[in-house]
Amino acid sequence: MKIKEVIIVEGRADTEALRHAVSADTIETNGSALGEQTIAAIKQAAATRGVIIFTDPDFNGERLRKLISEFVPEAKHAFLTKDEAGRQIRHHSLGIEYATPSVLRDALQSVYTAETVTAKSDITLADLRRLGLIAGHDAAKRREHVAEVMGLGYVNGKQLMNRLTMFGIKKQALLEVLQELDEEK
């Protein structure tokens, strides 16, 4: 599988893992600190080939994703869940480098692009509360299911709202995912 866009990753181990899964060029940020040269390279890649932000599903990865998105709002986003990123194998470490090649390929085939202002989500925070995705005893489990099925990566309540909005996901699609979950019980 060949990826046209340049994939933005955190480090060398992520690049190596991707090389086992796909044919792609990467830009390594070397952690969550973005230097001027790295920012310039990301902007250049975005202007010429497009970029996919593919960071670890942890605090630093999410922070880095947010920073890069400020510089390149048209970037595409690929996500892994914590389990896909090796949480079950390595209890304290997780990252792209621990994902299997097939999981990496699946994530890169399910990228999201931030929608324009005119294509906003119709989901509100009140909807998320009412649907048991925020502030309920099963909220974390329900959010994890939604994020996994929709390919949104790890999210807390605030991140879920942001991603649903950013990607223009509609309430009907969310309700369908939750209906499947409720039917499984």
UniProtKB/TrEMBL annotation:
GO MF entry, a single one: rRNA binding
Coarse class of the protein's main subcellular location: cytoplasm
CC annotations in GO: cytoplasm
Catalytic activity: Endonucleolytic cleavage of RNA, removing 21 and 42 nucleotides, respectively, from the 5'- and 3'-termini of a 5S-rRNA precursor
EC number: 3.1.26.8
Highest taxon, organism lineage: Bacteria
Gene Ontology terms describing biological process: rRNA processing
Residue span, Toprim domain: 4-94
PROSITE patterns: TOPRIM (PS50880)
PANTHER family: DNA PRIMASE (BACTERIAL TYPE) AND SMALL PRIMASE-LIKE PROTEINS, RIBONUCLEASE M5
Functional description taken from the UniProt entry: Required for correct processing of both the 5' and 3' ends of 5S rRNA precursor. Cleaves both sides of a double-stranded region yielding mature 5S rRNA in one step.
Protein name: Ribonuclease M5
Lineage: Bacteria, Bacillati, Bacillota, Bacilli, Lactobacillales
